[in-house]
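User: Could you check the structure of this?
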Amino acid sequence: MSMVECRTLFGEKILLPAERLIFRPSAYAIIRHDDRVLLLNMRSTGKLFLPGGGSEIDERLEEALHREVREETGLEVEIERFVAFKENFFYYDPLDFAFHGLLFFYLCKPLTFDLASSDQIEDDEADAPRWVPIDQLRLEDIQSHGEIIFQALRSVA
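Assistant: Sure, the predicted structure tokens are below.
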């Protein structure tokens, strides 16, 4: 039986049988406006993360990105450009799911600005979408892939 090392939601490593992995392409939005970036609070860990998530079987990545941003923040965005790709083996502790993720990151600009309230968000993990001043953002505040976020933000500074 082939085993795969996955990172958990809480940053630990766990070995899991490869057949437990769910193949999951996903898209994430780095949404910058002026000197701020839009982030969500993760209920399980209290850390910040990007809006986005997995695409449905019949959905293009860009469509998934628009849907996920709308569900998690209430905003409509324009995709400016693709900025990064990362392969990820991830174990989601709360639901006992393991993923082989293909993560695509896009720099986006907001077309609307009325953020959804926490009770309007269609995601069990996402809470409190908010504009975070970039100069106050620290790598340790971010749930995962912070290096990609900072690199993308520097590229448009």
